[in-house]
Amino acid sequence: MRRIQEICEHIVGFPPALFAGRGIFQYNFGIVPYRKPITVVIGKPIRVEKIENPTSEDILSMHKKYKEALQELYDEHNPKYGNPDVKLLIE
Fold first, then answer.
1. 12-53: pLDDT as tens digits
2. Neighbours of 54 (CB within 10 A)
């Protein structure tokens, strides 16, 4: 399949995307995604004061608050809904 993608890329300039999934009326082959549960967790709001011309320090401070809140949310809910062995990495 990779070879076919490379040939198509050479001809048209981009490789075609290959989809794998289930069908609409049958579950053996198709492009509809497989059924998987999705869990969405919503955290508490982060208070933000409106600043007309924020400085880089203001932006970095808010980004730090966001990362901390995201880490807390992940640490709280990952053992229940996710995989406890997977750690959150924010770069």
1. 998 888 778 888 888 788 888 888 888 999 999 999 999 999
2. 13
Is residue 60's pLDDT more than 90? yes
* Residues 14, 41 within the same domain: no
> In terms of domains, do 10 and 43 share one?
no
Closest Cα to residue 19, out of 38, 33, 5, 9?
33
From the CB of residue 74, how many other CB atoms can be counted at a distance below 10 Å?
A: 17
Does this model's pTM top 0.85? My answer is no
Say if residue 46 is in the same domain as residue 71. Answer: yes
Number of domains observed in the structure of the chain: 2
Question: Which domain does 89 fall in, by range?
Answer: 37-91
The DSSP letter of residue 31 is S
* Residue 30 backbone phi and psi in degrees, to 5: 165, -170
